[in-house]
Specification:
The chain is α+β, with helices and mostly antiparallel strands. The protein contains 17 helices and 23 strands. The chain folds into three domains: 291 residues, Vaccinia Virus protein VP39 (Rossmann fold), CATH 3.40.50; 117 residues, no CATH class; 74 residues, Archaeosine Trna-guanine Transglycosylase, Chain: A, domain 4. The chain binds S-adenosylmethionine.
């Protein structure tokens, strides 16, 4: 591989006698891996069903090395969201972030969502994940990856960090900045990164990173943690960016990363910075940067990475008790919410954000079909705006004409009662046009932010009924559905379903939550190997495939 001359010179200078081994690693195969989605099943359950995907990655829960010739992206288990394909070193930052159920978490530079899906695994459906990227075209893949993994408790935004910091000042227990960088650690994985390196100069990247971490720091709660990571070796982008943060924010300290020697990680190298790059830091504080971690391809089984864990000092006990926060939410929700029908509880709240008065602002953002990838075609564009926006008489001071949130909720409840009786979501509903989203009860208002998904997209209420989204299917369980078609991944019908074909299953195969033939017709949750794949509409003879084109296999 032809490496940029300037990069070679710098690395020789930095690594000295180790440089030879470092450059020799470019002749070795790149490392690849996948990570089991603990939100859907644990690694032991995955292994007992599908076999061991490879050797375990020692630093990543549910992580496995894959072989160069493996094609994990071609497996149905991938489409079902049972794992995410991720480079092994890239699994380290979230492990260091120590995300726990009930935490409020921000992934600030998130697309395409590898680390966000890892955070979802750790949250176990409790808490809040705000996942953001400032590149709008990249948030499509981000939203889809989140939804495949099971999107409960997630908000996807397309924002600049400084705008998020206005809404979320001091809010998050955990913040990840997986920063845009010069990508030196990815040369072996992706040769195009060598060309990109010249374009994204180290200096330009470092300036961008400083702006991003400054805003990220503002959003960390006292006692909370921030992990800063890159996939580059450049000291300016790594220790240099963290040094700038430490100089500007005296209440942040480096928490030293301690890992077993056999993993081969190296320490942070503040000694590789010059005086200008460490301005504002005394020697003692600068030395704490050795507590960061560097993954070297010639020492570890992973591509090049850097990560530093920073803790924002707070009052003693400021670190929120993650699980406690969660259970109080549940209690409140169960108390206030119900469908009003005996024997049928549905703990969904209609929070203040769902008053008709707030519908107008949110519906306006839906114009243009943004965020509609997981809804049937009929729901895109037309009819998404309040009437006042579709022409007709101007109604400047009047309330918007979007369907009242309560009406939407009632349609959702009717759908859930009939088609998803086992589903027990908790949180606050948010209506945007005809779409309904669910978000954790204590999520702050997203007004003014560009939210690609202002919560878990449940579906859309049409004039006559509620149409469930693909995101809802991927985030529920087979047993929740009144009607399901349970296919095995080895059956031809499973592949046909993923291709978008209509199915004609034996009516005995449409079963209830107990797995027995159910009779009746309506929405059917199509499941493969025990996991939801999407929706179908059953009329007693034919199962109409409701899988959207963007989710089908070519
Ligand atoms: C290294 S990639 C993130 C990879 C991602 N964390 C994952 O694991 O899949 C960096 C991302 O930062 C985004 N980005 C660049 N500048 C940004 C900014 N100012 N604010 C937020 N995101 C930014 C890029 O669009 C890119 O998607």
């Amino acid at each position: 591989m032809k490496l940029p001359a300037r990069f070679e010179e710098t690395m020789k200078e930095l690594l000295g006698s180790e440089a030879e081994a470092f450059f020799a690693s470019y002749g070795q195969p790149k490392t690849t891996g996948l990570r089991i989605n603990g939100r859907k099943l644990g690694a032991p359950a995955f292994v007992s069903r599908f076999g061991e995907p490879g050797q375990p990655i020692p630093w990543a829960e549910g992580g496995f090395y894959t072989g160069e010739d493996d094609r994990p992206g071609k497996q149905l288990a991938y489409d079902l969201g049972l794992y995410y394909i991720q480079e092994p070193s890239a699994m380290l930052p979230v492990e260091l972030l120590d995300v726990r159920p009930g935490h409020r978490v921000l992934d600030l530079c998130a697309a395409p969502g590898g680390k966000s899906t890892q955070m979802l695994s750790k949250l176990q459906g409790r808490g809040l994940l705000v996942t953001n990227d400032n590149a709008s075209e990249r948030t499509k893949a981000l939203a889809k990856n989140i939804e495949r993994a099971g999107a409960a408790g997630t908000v996807v935004t397309n924002e600049e960090p400084e705008r998020l910091a206005v809404t979320f000042g001091g809010f998050f227990d955990r913040v990840l900045v997986d920063a845009p960088c010069s990508g030196e650690g990815m040369f072996r994985k992706d040769e195009s990164m060598v060309r990109e390196w010249e374009r994204h100069s180290v200096e330009r990247c470092a300036a961008m990173q400083r702006d991003i971490v400054r805003q990220a720091a503002r959003m960390v709660a006292p006692g909370g943690k921030l992990v800063y990571s890159t996939c580059t070796f450049s000291p300016l982008e790594n220790e240099g960016t963290v040094a700038a943060l430490l100089a500007e924010f005296p209440d942040f300290v480096v928490e030293p990363v301690r890992t077993p020697a056999e993993w081969g990680f190296g320490p942070g190298r503040p000694d590789w910075l010059n005086a200008e790059q460490t301005a504002g830091l005394d020697a003692e504080r600068l030395a704490t940067l050795t507590g960061a971690v560097r993954v070297w391809p010639h020492r570890s089984r992973g591509e090049g990475h850097f990560a530093a864990v920073l803790v924002r000092r707070g009052e003693a006990g400021a670190e929120p008790a993650a699980e406690e926060k969660d259970s109080s939410e549940k209690g409140q929700a169960a108390e206030e919410g119900a469908s009003g029908e005996p024997g049928w509880t549905f703990p969904l709240l209609l929070g203040p954000a769902n008053d008709d008065a707030t519908l107008e602002g949110t519906a306006r953002k839906a114009k243009g079909g943004r965020g509609s990838e997981t809804l049937p075609k009929s729901r895109k564009g037309v009819g998404m705006q309040p009437k006042s926006e579709r022409g007709g008489e101007a109604q400047p001071k009047k309330k918007p004409v979007a369907p009242p949130a309560r009406e939407l909720r009632d349609k959702l409840l009717a759908f859930a009662k009939q088609s998803l009786p086992g589903w027990r979501p908790v949180g606050r509903l948010l209506a945007r046009g005809e779409r309904l989203y669910l978000l954790p009860e204590d999520a702050p208002s997203l007004d003014g932010l560009n939210a690609v998904r202002p919560g878990w997209l449940l579906g859309a209420a049409t004039k006559h009924r509620f149409e469930p989204s693909q995101a809802l299917a991927m985030g529920t369980r087979m047993e929740d559905a009144a009607l399901s078609l349970r296919l095995s991944g080895s059956e031809e019908a499973a592949l046909k379903y993923w291709k978008g074909d209509t199915l004609q299953p034996d009516p005995e195969g449409i079963v209830g939550p107990d797995g027995r033939p159910a009779g009746g017709n309506g929405w059917v949750l199509v499941c493969i190997d025990g996991f939801p794949a999407g929706w179908g509409r059953w009329d007693g003879a034919t199962l109409k495939n409701e899988l959207l084109p963007g989710w089908r296999r070519a």
